[in-house]
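Shipment paperwork, digital attachment
Item: protein structure file
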Amino acid sequence: MLKFYLLPVVVFFFLMCGCAFLPSYRVEKEGRAFITDYPLNRIAVEKAVSEHRLMYGMTMEEVVKSWGNPDLEHELIINGKVYYSWLYRKNNLTRILYFNRGILVDIQ
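Attachment content:
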């Protein structure tokens, strides 16, 4: 009987903790160290740039190398933090990139 009560608690715990391990959360917390402190992430960023893809933790310069200049730029202040949003329109698809301290922290 205890197993049936324990299972939902364990599932709930893993679902809630999973949010802490999302790349965007880690980049927001660690900044550029998310890339520079992990050699495999550095290699992954170089590969992403060469393949014209994006990756959390890229600098603004790396994003420009990968996707070119944005179609539209905005500066936002959210909870006292300055974010820059870049809008890209490609093939009827709109992507908004958010940067904090020059690092890509969110892609929508």
